[in-house]
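Folded chain entry —
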Amino acid sequence: MTVEKICILGLGYIGLPLASTFATHGKHVVAMDVNPSIIQTLQNGALHIHEPGLRSLVEEALKSGNLDIRHSVEPADAFIIAVPTPYDDGKRADLRYVQSAAESIVPHLRRGNLVVLESTSPPQTTLHLVAPILEKSGLVPGRDFFLAYSPERVLPGQIIRELVENARIIGGIDPASAKAGQELYQSFVQGEIVLTDATTAEMVKLMENTTRDVNIALANEFSRLADRLGVDVWEAINLANRHPRVKILRPGPGVGGHCVSVDPWFLVEAAPDITPLIRTAREVNDAQPHFVLDLATRWLGPLEGRKIGVLGLAFKPDVDDLRESPAVEVAYQLQQQGAILQAFEPFKPDAALPGLALASSLEMALADKQAVILLVAHTQFRQLDPHAIAALTPARQVIDAVHAWEAKRWTDAGFEFHTLGNGQ
């Protein structure tokens, strides 16, 4: 099929890079979002998210004249849904954004169009939710228009490169739809494009992130065992990983982000009676912030009234994404125990976190504190000089929850140093 105009619904961490990439590869792209502040920010030449290389990519796309930022859906040859899919309080997928996006396409859907769902979704979402909504147009998917699922599979911090270089899976509701999706994405994808059916493509994305979640849960349990048994888990992991068929991941304060901490629940939701391992791994990782809280209480003593500087709130290093961040959860739990916190997130110092005091600088986060807790291994935190930090704060107790600092350097600078997973 020939695609000259693409309408992309959702301008978050996936939608905006995707729209800009298509635009810089010659496609006319209408990129829309229902959040007026996002539209206003982009139309004013600013960005609402941080991602290396994104600013220059968006600027190039706008300069080309191929990228239009809009408030609503417009007719197009292809529609791509890239909206969030969070879960609700019951750990079930909240598909209201997907539903709303599909409904907004209906008035504009024409014969020969292609609709692609990119949002991470439970298996059979394309067939059992999106397809019936689009049929309200009077058109039949697979006969009158093409319908496919193609999951984003990129790593925050490397989205721009991986969007182009990674293999792309396209699952159609029929072979013709998968082929139409291939013709669309091959305009910029350099990695292999693999065709399959929609439900398999949905499950592949969930399997990828669930595998990582289970492996991190194992590492987190190892950190708890090491703490109890008097072992340095970091040394043990390093030694175990010398085995040619072993690759243990790094423990930490938990698992966050919009993918790894969410996607496994979609599989549990689909078949709760046959997914006990996946559920248990999620529960282990969800409980890890409380393990960090227990360590802080043990090492720092009663937290009531204790002034603590928290470094890092993002869900992983060198990104500004706070969604489902275990660092945020640790901060709130510390505060619930009576600690007086100031948290510094260099990539999002103005984050909206109700009830949590944020510092606008490292100096502010450290001033007049009694202890410092590192929760995210941002590069700028990893490179901190403990002697320089000693001059910025009266705190002499440090907890490293991500194994980013060398203990000897900090003890030599006069700090009492503790790190997660070191039971020695």
Remarks:
- The radius of gyration is 23 Å.
